[in-house]
Write a structure and sequence with these properties.
The protein is an alpha/beta fold. Helices cover 25% and strands 18% of the residues.
């Protein structure tokens, strides 16, 4: 077996290094202002069981934070610290909070700000600073203060700093629009952002923060012609013009989409149980796959890694349903291609065939009925009415994979060039049912046979005790 699927020790022994822990000081995440804000929020909603969700690098600060919250003397308040997350630290973990029967969550650190439907949440971001004078001077040297049209976005750790300099930015650049984070009850325009003007590809995107997945998600969602990055964490911050979608990245994603179009079965990997709309998008992917004659398997395995997905050898590719900040689908370590929901949409939805990757999104809610990229699933099935459509030939296998339905004079339907369907004609007035269980019957080994009632009952014996590395009844000579 490849070493990519046998690195269990690295997972078991995965710990935060001391260097990572020391990077974030307490004042970068917690101060009197944040304390009073959380106390007011708890009292306003009359909360009694509050869960604190912190990333691994901040867990050592939880003792001081809990102590300060308890000093507020709120009646009957119980506080729980979530020491591990079900999926990613940027997502609100309703599953872990439910184990403590918590009625609310205070989320610390970086956040994807995906909408949560079932529990009240307040976010406490990192409180990083920005050199105001250096930023204004850098922008003045690069842009025309009166003509250039800019839209300013920022990493959430700089939200507090950008709020303080917002007025000076707008005063210096009259055509600059500073995006705002959507509040709990607001509908975001793009990702977690609320815009006061329609997004225009002609606008230059200014992003204050690091070159990470948050920047990538924002840039590709806006389809901006120019993206400028200002990273305050650098020793000497400069304005960099960055193309978020490189040619190498595009080739890899095109290949993954082609593999998905060739697939006879896909696994829908659920990497969130709290993001609003995840059940609807799972149903949508299932219907799109069914229209193409592709079997679907629903998989929920907690935190996703190559070792877990390698167990599903009969699945041709996987589709990840998770938050926009989940970047594991770009990893090269997986045995089968792992696609985002939007890439699966491009593979199965014929309306995206002629405009593959003309736009992109990592937010699956954009594909739901209220989203900006929604299309009707019922109109995606391929029929003989598509007379002007060219044959669909795989660029990997060279075989035709188009599903065409022909209705004969007697009303009987036949299928040609099909890679797999739910029901296919077997003979006149006979149908052969194809299901996911057919994959099991084709295997040479299907598991242990139970032989219920055929074997004599066994005598109960004392089993082993101890741990697998050395059982108590094992002899040293046998090791």
């Amino acid at each position: 077996m490849s070493s990519a699927f046998s690195s269990g020790d690295s997972i078991i022994q995965n710990q935060s290094s001391a260097a990572d822990v020391d990077k974030v000081a307490l004042h970068h995440i917690w101060n009197d202002e944040q304390k009073q804000r959380c106390v007011r929020w708890i009292e306003k909603h009359n909360l009694k069981r509050v869960a604190l969700q912190l990333p691994d690098a901040l867990l050592h600060h939880s003792v001081e934070i809990v102590s300060q919250l308890q000093s507020a003397s709120i009646d009957d308040l119980r506080i729980f610290v979530l020491a591990d997350t079900s999926y990613g630290s940027c997502c609100v973990d309703e599953i872990a909070a439910a184990h403590a029967n918590a009625d609310s969550i205070i989320h610390f650190g970086h956040a994807c700000l995906s909408k949560v439907a079932r529990i009240p949440v307040v976010h406490v971001f990192f409180q990083y600073t920005v050199d105001e004078e250096h930023l204004l001077a850098t922008l003045s040297n690069e842009f025309d203060t009166s003509n250039d049209e800019l839209i300013c976005f920022y990493e959430v750790c700089y939200a507090n700093a950008v709020t303080k300099i917002r007025e000076k930015l707008v005063e210096r650049f009259p055509n600059l629009v500073v995006a705002c984070l959507a509040e709990d009850n607001e509908i975001a325009d793009i990702l977690c952002w609320k815009l006061h003007v329609p997004a225009d590809p002609k606008h230059t995107v200014l992003y204050i923060g690091r070159d990470n997945l948050s920047f990538f998600n924002t840039a590709v969602a806006l389809e901006a012609s120019q993206c400028c990055l200002y990273d305050p964490s650098n020793i000497d911050p400069r304005l960099e013009r960055i193309d978020p979608i490189g040619a190498k990245w595009l080739r890899r994603r095109y290949y993954a989409i082609e593999r998905c179009m060739d697939a006879g079965s896909i696994g829908i990997v659920v990497a969130t149980l709290s993001t609003k709309g995840y059940l609807e998008i799972v149903s949508r992917v299932q219907r799109l796959a069914k229209a193409r004659g592709v079997r679907t398997y629903l998989i929920s395995i907690g935190k996703v890694n190559p070792e877990k997905l390698a167990n599903f050898v009969d699945i041709d590719c996987f589709v990840l349903v998770g938050c926009p900040e989940n970047d594991i689908f770009t990893s090269r370590d997986f045995f089968r291609p792992l696609l985002s929901v939007f890439e699966a949409e491009m593979a199965f939805n014929k309306k995206w065939k002629d405009k593959l990757l003309s736009c992109y999104t990592t937010n699956f809610t954009d594909l739901l009925p209220a989203g900006r990229l929604y299309t009707n699933v019922e109109e995606t099935s391929v029929t003989s009415e598509d007379t002007n459509e060219l044959p669909d030939v795989s660029l990997i296998t060279g075989k035709a994979r188009h599903v065409i339905q022909h209705r004969e004079a007697d009303g009987e339907e036949t299928l040609e060039n099909s890679t797999g369907t739910d029901v296919v004609p077997k003979g006149r007035n006979e149908l052969a049912q194809i299901s996911s269980a057919d994959q099991l019957t084709s295997r040479s080994w299907q598991g242990l046979e139970q032989k219920l009632g055929l074997d004599a009952p066994a005598v109960i014996q004392m089993g082993r005790s101890g741990i697998p590395i050395k059982y108590e009844n094992e002899n040293n000579s046998s090791q």
